[in-house]
């Protein structure tokens, strides 16, 4: 019986050394993500379901060509949904009117999840926890929870937020998470840097009412209001993780926080980074280090969007700091495409090559995610070409989440050739079982020429990644001999031993 929920926190805070994925120029294991934001995107509201499907397929095909293996899709931009929900309305960014879906009930999250998995890519459902409206000009539907229970919300600047200090709001957000995890086959729940809102100069966050109601009874006086705010966010993160464990414990929970945890000058013991910028801990009340250390999140993806050599927040300084402060858990680096491709090295080249070299040189860094996805698919300054032709030249498997489960699935069996009227197929049997993450989730196909050493650690030998129990073979003239090796990979990305078959193509 699957007992992950009982053991998941057992390795919290472990500093067990992680394998290095920089041993090869082209690592076999590397997280390669991209964000697709829906907030402030106007293109969707003019589309019908057929057009939206074509648009999503085009995005995913271009991302796949660029070597992306995980898509972070924003499904809850502001307490509304790019999926069917009985808790929250359809997003205004989807159709132009909050609460109005497409006539045929098209569900973008369901479609994107299925299409990602067809391509051997993960789908991370991206939620913004507290934001309700990003502008005072936005119209909320009449029966929105904001109108039903206005005492649970605060207005700050031109935006509306769930008050993080009210326990009922944490319960509600966890209910939203449970709804998504229970009904959709997502690989992860993802949240970004928006917890308490970015501070507005001279304007304190208006949570006096909730602090007066809950602060003292939780043990916080006025001198420790910042600690109370951090505790509110800590409680949310911990409760979301517990919600996921009790629903589908194999689904991961990841955060992409603002790139600076704390500046060195803000820490009495000098443990912060040598930077001079806004801080997660002090300004957004996000104690990311604590979440990683306690095992409340399964991966950390700091947004190190600045340039190499930036005076206040140098990329090199920050990637080193995060690599030294991630407690042995998966660490992926958030990369800003435009700032990377616009910035120059002393040689006159853009900074992509050096940033990729740096991310692969740190043993505790296991991949990257690219902001924003629309810049990637538009090939901004050739970034997609550079990834597909050089840095992502060969496919990569996502690093295994061995702290969650470290046993490989059973090998595939009975590899056979199958000829149809149109195709020459390789087919096989596996122990794949829907809803059991310890069985095969997808398969990796390797190919070796006659006499070539069989090395499945070299990604250059990967010719396919599929969730199906079949692979379409190419035609090579009918005289060349090859050996195909197939492995099974579970939902945690543990890979089985290979099963081989010789084929003449």
Automatic annotation (TrEMBL):
It comes from Dysgonomonas capnocytophagoides. Keywords: Signal. Gene3D superfamilies: Glycosidases. This is Glycosyl hydrolase-like 10 domain-containing protein. InterPro entries: Divisome_Glycosyl_Hydrolase, GH, GHL10. Residues 30-339 form the Glycosyl hydrolase-like domain. The keyword Ribonucleoprotein does not apply. The keyword Metal-binding does not apply. PANTHER family: GLYCOSYL HYDROLASE DIGH (PTHR43405:SF1).
